[in-house]
Here is the input.
Amino acid sequence: MKRFKELIRRLLRGPWADQRTYYTVFVAVLLVPNLFLCVTEPMPWLGKAALLLVPGGVWMGLFALARRPGLPLWCLLPVLVFGAFQLVLLYLFGNSIIAVDMLLNVATTNSGEAMELLGKLVPAIVGVVALYVPTLILGVVSARLPDRLSDAFRRRSLWRAAFVLLVGGGAMVGARIQDPAYRAKYDLWPLNIAYNFTQAVDRWQRTARYAETSRDFRFEARSERPDTLREVYVLVVGETSRALNWQLYGYDRPTTPLLMQEPGLVCFRDMLTQANATHKSVPIMLSAASAEDYDVIYTHKSILTAFREAGFRTAFFSNQRPNGSFIDHFGAEADTTLFLKAPATPGEAAAEPYDEELLRAVDALLTDTSSGRGDSRKLFIVLHTYGSHFDYQERYPAREAYFRPAVYESVGPDLRDRLVNAYDNSIRDTDRFLSRLIGRLRALPNTASAMLYASDHGEDLYDDRRNLFLHASPIPTYYQLHIPCVVWFSADYDTLRPEARAAARANARKPMTTNIVFHTMLDLGGIETPYRNDSLAVSSASFRVRPRHFLNDHNRPEPLDRLGLRSPDIDMFRRMGLDFPAR
Here is the structure.
């Protein structure tokens, strides 16, 4: 405490005894995110000028309104918090402002996931702490300093601020001429953060009202098959698994050795996700929503309800924590819902099981002869895995680490080999999980069964000169878009409907996106409903290739060639033999 008081006394001498010094420092600190965004964001040069001039003029004017600049600085604490968030985001993704999806990711990420990530972002955290904490301390010093900004200085500063704002406004007009897509609410920091925050709040509230807005929805579904036939269908939703690291897709490491030996498997080579954030990508797979028509998600129920209406007993088993997203709402529609990581009692520490524990829940359901809700002879199960979500080294037992070394204390391009080893080990764990699940389905006597696996999105792993890491960046990359998708058919299902496997094989190399999952599962299960579209079912001969879209941050469909993909991404599309729109 004595040292701190001595530091304050020293600050109150020399230039730090003059409020004009604080005025200048505070304006400069608030413009730091803008300076970085000028470098990282693709916008016309007049847009970059406006990015500095307009906020600069606002800050100059605000600090000139008070005789002690430290007072308005503390009033701007939310701006400083978002500034720190923005700089960490740039450290992670290399570009883009804080997006709506990023704000929702924060709201739907549990504390365990957050700590796993924050523990590996020490450089970025140290940097923002070193910038903003001293600034806030200086704000306290300024607020208690006997010195005041003179009336003459404040008048001059207000005139200067007005001039800077005028020039900045002209730059905004010029930026709109240079690029008609330029919008202040999207491109001017921190106005764009305020806009995105209001959008995030609106989406969260609409999601919270889902039970009310979807209450009267009906699929009018029925089964096309006789009640006496036993059927079991399983949809496995993967997590953060990218096709590039699957041996099935040509990867030169043995990451899927068991699935490589599975004769009943059909692998879809050109599957892209329609969203790179779990809270949007998974609901697209579980419902009729798509990038092209996403808003139906607020009024339609999920595929679990469709199977229930058709007389199936349904179950939703998740190895992720409840987070208030549509995934929770959809899971609650099942006859049996289980979140393995949800604390049994309030205050109890959450469990951290591996995906293998989901098989115990499946075993219990497969051997349950009670009627329950629906006919126990007909089962539909959704498994939401934790797959390859960061922290990769925590996704599998240490004894199963095939690729070594796979232990790391932080992240960075220099540790890529270890990160990739751990990531590949997590995919081997998914391989074991799927192989054992298939084994259980195969062992069911006189049962028509099928399993579909698709990952929600991929991941960046410092793959090229951009040094990008993780997923959910506002502008996706090839590595986040290209995902694995496989379907397995039992021998009894082949007898029941041999044309399904034939259609799947015929469609295996066609371009598709994750909105096919909903329709494919309905087709596999023989669920007849007006909401089923066989032109989107890869197990149907009616499947048709369509232009592919990605659901952008403002929930609008963007064609692949307008996503802002960089040349390294397009090169990877070509290298992997994927369809990409010709320019």
Residues 19 and 120 are 38 Å apart (CA to CA). Confidence is low (pLDDT under 50) at residues 371-375. The longest strand covers residues 375-384. The radius of gyration is 27 Å.
